Amino acid sequence: MKRHPIGITILLFLLSISIISGCISSQNTMKRGTLTVGVCAQYPPTIYEENGNLAGFDFDLMNEIAKRMNLNTNFKIYNSKSELFDALEKNEVDCIGSRTVNYERRKFVDFTRVYYYDSVRVAVPESSSVTLLKELKGKNLGVIEGSVSSELVESYLTNIGCKCLYYDTPENLTNAVENGEVDAVIGHEMYLEHISTKCNVQKRYLDEKLSVSYWAIPINKNNPNLRNSINDILLEMENDGTLDELKLKWYGKY
């Protein structure tokens, strides 16, 4: 058999370039000196815009992480969760703000260690006569479209006989509460607390906790170095109390 040493040499060279490029890609955040974070700034108190500036738990968290990595932060704002995950897969961002961990998402993104968990519950005004989920029959239930809560509504609450009103953003759901369009709201406790405070409505939770969600930072699967670095810092922040301070500041609990 005739050998082709030049062809083999070229092939090995191209392969080595590919490997080196992959290594550089996984460390590109460190090289640029900037941590680029994708956010959907419609979810107070986690991340939102106030007077043209970003604020919230994620804003403080990602700035603290970048600071401890000796990096600057660059926040890119997207209009939806699907746009966020698309941006991550296309390497437009290094990571995205806090999202719930689930099996489907794990198929195409990595997650850092979990640093917060929260329950999905149904809240009603303090003055409401409703005390049990089954008593929502015939009532208007507000929910964020495409959220974990909406999935629970479709799989669990529709047989109760309540009328589900879907809203595209937390802001619109908050407006619905203010305007009296809904009799009850389903969502994570962190958002329900925010809605209650903003609307100045005393709320009461129904006893049942419908689900527990675990929150972490999604990272591209091709960037394990960044995931490991952020995990180290999250653990450091847990140990020195910084993480608890941020959770207490924005969510009112650990």
Automatic annotation (TrEMBL):
It comes from the Archaea. Pfam families: SBP_bac_3. One of its GO terms (cellular component) is membrane. Residues 34-253 form the Ionotropic glutamate receptor C-terminal domain. SUPFAM superfamilies: Periplasmic binding protein-like II. PROSITE patterns: PROKAR_LIPOPROTEIN. PANTHER family: MEMBRANE-BOUND LYTIC MUREIN TRANSGLYCOSYLASE F. Keywords: Signal. Transmembrane segments: none annotated. Residues 34-254 form the Solute-binding protein family 3/N-terminal domain. One of its GO terms (molecular function) is ligand-gated monoatomic ion channel activity. This is Polar amino acid transport system substrate-binding protein.
